[in-house]
Amino acid sequence: MASKGQCDPCTEQGTSSPAVKFCSDCEERTCFKECKKFSSLKRYFRCNGQCFKTLTGLMDGTNNNIKKLEDDEQTILRELQNVKENLVKQIDKLEEKVIKELSSIKKEKEIKFKRNKTEIGELKAKVQEIHEQVNFLKEHGSNSQLFWLCGNRRNKFNQLMFELKR
């Protein structure tokens, strides 16, 4: 589109040329041939300004990304701490449960072992009594008395042997 009026770059340089074209990038009227060198210089500055603006936007975006990264790190660290605390609580509960079960099992076993100890003590006393009776008859009695005692105590002795095997 031809534009009426003077070339804007030439006018700025102090010369006068009729405008033949309107540059939509520069938003200026130009004579095109005469101010081609001025247009490219102006385009360079405009591009440089646009680059600066773009780089500023990129810098701002990068700064925002860094801040978001730091915020995300803090959020993740807090969440990790919460998970850790929950795991520790679960482990503590499990430990408490195992300790209670262990204590209960220990008490049951202690009762059983004490009962066994008492029974063993009673069996030992009965065997000791039979042993003393046999030794007494060996030293002071006759063979017939010893034979009678062994026959008489056989059932009791067999019962003791059965209890020992349990």
UniProtKB/TrEMBL annotation:
Keywords assigned: Coiled coil
Keyword Coiled coil: yes
Protein name: Uncharacterized protein
Superkingdom field: Eukaryota
Regions annotated as coiled coil: 59-140
